Amino acid sequence: MRCQTEQLCFFATLQVVTGLYLGNIRDSEDRDSLRRHGVTHILSVHNGAKPVLEVNHSPSFQR
Q: Its family (predicted)?
């Protein structure tokens, strides 16, 4: 999904198959949208990977 402006770009993920979404780092930082979409786990792939949210019960992070 392409956004005209940064303000219009909210949870710009793509559902690949049922229950599997592909998104960007900004999406992974949006706790409310993650909760609304039922996201419970995040796989983060990038240089210098580190958890973007505090470790808690949801979402969970593994290296």
A: Belongs to the protein-tyrosine phosphatase family. Non-receptor class dual specificity subfamily.
Residue 62: other Cβ atoms inside 10 A: 8
Q: Are 33 and 10 in contact (CB under 8 A)?
A: yes
Tell me the torsion sign for CA atoms 44, 30, 12, 47.
Answer: negative
Q: Is the pTM of this model over 0.90?
A: no
- The answer to whether residues 28 and 34 touch, using CB atoms and an 8 Å cutoff, is yes
Residues 16-40: pLDDT tens digits?
A: 888 888 888 888 888 888 888 888 8
The Cα 58–Cα 16 span in angstroms is 21
